[in-house]
Amino acid sequence: MRQPPSIALENVTVTYHDQVALHGINLALPPGTIVGLVGMNGSGKSTLFKTIMGFITPKTGRVWIEGLPIHQAQKQGWVAYIPQSEQVDWQFPVSVQDVVMMGRYGYINWLRIPRPIDRRMVEMSLRQVDMLPLKNRQIGELSGGQKKRAFLARALAQQAHILLLDEPFNGVDMKTEREIIQLLMQLRDAGHTILVSSHDLSGISTFCDQIIFINQTILAYGATQEVFTPENLNRTFGVPLPGIIP
Amino acid sequence: MWDWLIAPLQYEFMVKALLVSGFVGVVCGVLSCYMTLKGWALMGDAVAHAVTPGVVLAYVLNLPLAVGAFVFGVGSVWLMGWIQKQTRIREDAVMGVVFTGLFALGLVLISKTPSNVDFLHILFGNVLGIPTWEMVQTLVMGGLTLGVLLVFKNDLLLFCFDPTHARSIGINITGLHYLLLTLLSLTIVVALQTVGIVLVVAMLITPGATAYLLTDRFDRMLILAVLSGLGASGLGTYLSYYLDAATGGCIVLVQTLLFFLAMVGAPKYGLFRGGRRSG
What we know:
Number of domains of chain A: 2
Radius of gyration of chain A: 18 Å
Number of strands of chain B: 0
Distance between the termini of chain B: 45 Å
CATH superfamily of one domain in chain B: ABC transporter involved in vitamin B12 uptake, BtuC
Helix content of chain A: 25-40%
Strand content of chain B: under 5%
Shape of chain A: globular
Order of helices and strands of chain A: EEEHEEHEHHHEHEHEEHH
Number of helices of chain B: 13
CATH class of one domain in chain B: Mainly Alpha
CATH topology of one domain in chain B: ABC transporter involved in vitamin B12 uptake, BtuC
CATH architecture of one domain in chain B: Orthogonal Bundle
Helix content of chain B: over 70%
Number of strands of chain A: 10
Structural class of chain B: mainly alpha
Oligomer: heterodimer
Order of helices and strands of chain B: HHHHHHHHHHHHH
Number of helices of chain A: 9
């Protein structure tokens, strides 16, 4: 049987107070790929993320996650969102382990008292991202790359198949960026579908298998080497961007 | 010292006052952790003031005071949200307008309501004169609030820390928002007798803020906030007895003192350790 796409959007239109934010979106992202989402501020990147997470009901069209309607997929915990660094209160009194355990909440009963299996999943996830020795650290004591890895571990503990990363390279140095990319590629090879929004145009083309150019609608979508062209960059940003194409 | 502790206990009103204010200190201590972490300090102040007309109307209509407080507490938050959507005014200004407006309505209603209850007690508390049935009401409502807070401890923590994640795994964050708001309204009613509307916000913030300076683990923060709430209530009540001063004021003063002690002496984040929370 053919595997359904990880994320499928059929003719999706989203409006805010009669203002069109997205229109005519048709996408089918295959499993086990890293897809870059490229567009200007206000081009609808965040709206697309929110639509895929089921926070926004499209005015028209439908969203499928691995063949299931979005709200069923949500209950299964299939989609994980890794927030931008600026959205997190790093002084919050929780440890790395506490944060990763939050990925298990969908599986634990309503008192949220972890079972042995939840503790095992948390350990495994931490080991997978090489964070086990830091599990008792308060999250603010981590470096930029470690912070990102803690949240990726939470997505793994959640057993999410699809990871949405919002500007993961904001405020991290080159070395950390490379480490994060390395980890994303490992997760891709393990079968995860990863959608990354980023302003870092030159970086994104080096590790994404596919790129989506967006400005209220899909301007171009396909394999990176085919669509990452000066013409598409020009269409997306409205100005020529010399020196971006590697 | 022993005599100092024992002497007031020969009076029934002091035993009741210690029991009630201590219990209120515990309930407020737990809630204050969430208020501090969610950044709801101003919200706590706003709701505390906004419940005043509700309490007076409930008295006039012979309803439980909690009902009036709850309706006006949640209603005021709904009203603030509605005004914010309809206008270009920012949230803090909207809160300021709504809570002072409702508080003013409460003051007018107080001045026009003939009653044998001194409504000043609502404003400033009167734990030394608390009647038994009100004590029972406070204990029952406080117990209920505490129970719900402990049952939803982890969900509320997630709601404060990362509501987007909570929502993405199917947790009803609108429900949690209103649950926390309801618990806030109930706690305000519970604390009314002890410190009154004017000072209740201190009970809702200071223990949590104090504990936040002392630890960076949530469970320890809860315990420390409860201990500081309980300790301040006990010590404040004793002080008010010996100084013949307002009980609510004494309790809040002790809480403030504890906060400054933590600010100076906290092992990791105190002034003299040079510790700073990294961002």
